[in-house]
Amino acid sequence: MWKAAIFDLDGTLSDSIHSIKYCADRAVAPLGYGPFSVEEYKYFVGDGVVELIRRALAAGGDSEGVHLEETLARYRELFAVDCMYQVKPYEEIPELLAELKRRGLRLAVLSNKPHAETIRVIETLFGKDCFDVIQGQVEGVPVKPDPAGGLKILEQLGLVAKEALYLGDTATDMRTGKGLGAYTVGVLWGFRTREELEQSHADAVIARPLELLEYLGEQ
Q1: pLDDT of residue 215
Q2: Suppose 74 and one of 27, 52, 86, 148 were both cysteines; which one would form an S-S bond, judging by CB atoms 3.0 to 4.6 Å apart?
């Protein structure tokens, strides 16, 4: 039934919250803000780097984003160096990807992380040949939940949305998958709760990566 699986990156493929916290805490520190907790960062992330920094600034007291541009520039400089800080794949993810490829599914990544760092994380964790298409945040393509990036992926794969699964860990991801027209799977090992995923109308919610295989049947 499905010919491709499109994955979110942070909180879905990679446990990367510590790299984000490490860079963002240092970016806001000159303003006297932070450090913020891992749990706070789980709700700062998900909607792109601009919103990440905007939320961190608001948590520190700059609710108007007065220091947004300077802090964003500082974060991007830091993250370009340290995007792999303590980053690792979630348990069972390598096995899931290998099995999906064995079954003939095409694999793609759609992330709101900057494109260069998205590629670096994916290639470091999974190699250069694991994914058929990698789409991070680039100029001119709206961030998720806009489905534009997903549509670009489908075009490159030569597929339509009903032939794709979309996996992610946040409400933003569920809205992305729904907007794309894909079968949307919420994952519980990432940054958000079952309640959030179900309220965002996930078609399925799974607690472990290899549970996805139950939805694929025998292939």
Answers
A1: 87
A2: 27
Which amino acid, residue 108? A
Q: CA–CA separation, 35 vs 38, rounded Å?
A: 10
Interior angle at CA 62, CA 61 and CA 68, nearest 5:
145
Identify which of 5, 31, 6, 34 has the alpha carbon closest to the alpha carbon of residue 20. 34
Q: Averaged in consecutive runs of 10 residues, what is the pLDDT profile of the chain (219 residues)? A: 96 97 98 98 96 98 98 97 97 98 97 96 97 96 97 98 97 98 98 98 98 81
- Candidates 214, 215, 8, 32; CA nearest to 107 is 8
DSSP 209: G
Cα distance between the two ends of the chain: 10
Q: For residues 12 and 189, give the distance between their C-alpha atoms in angstroms, rounded to a whole number.
A: 7
pLDDT of residue 186: 98
pTM above 0.85, yes or no: yes
Distance CA(77)–CA(69), nearest Å, equals: 12
Q: With the C-alpha atoms ordered 111, 84, 121, 26, is the resulting torsion angle positive or negative?
A: positive
d(CA 16, CA 106): 24
Q: Are 209 and 95 in contact (CB under 8 A)?
A: yes
Name the maximum alpha-carbon separation found in the chain.
55
Residue 219 structure tokens = 């292939």
Q: Assess whether the previous peptide bond of 94 is cis (omega < 30° from 0).
A: no
What pLDDT score was predicted for residue 216?
A: 87
Coil, strand or helix at 4 = strand
